[in-house]
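Async update (no meeting this week)

Hi team, since we skipped the sync, here's where things stand on the single-chain job. The sequence we agreed to prioritize is pasted below, unchanged from the tracker. I ran it this morning and attached the output directly underneath so nobody has to dig for it. Comments welcome in thread, and please keep replies under the output.
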Amino acid sequence: MMAALAKAISRATRTNVDVETLKVLVIFSGAGLLLSLVAAMIYGQALGAALF
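Output:
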């Protein structure tokens, strides 16, 4: 699946995209999304309690 995604990105952007580079980008993007969701859940509850 990653190879097909890398191939599609390579075709769309006309640049050479390596599968390993794509894996690293997906891992860091996923980690950033997870951290953002955790921060939103923690600070979202605190913000709701402070407003009421």
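Quick observations from my side:
The chain has a mean pLDDT of 84.
The CA atoms of residues 6 and 22 lie 7 Å apart.
Reply here if anything looks off.
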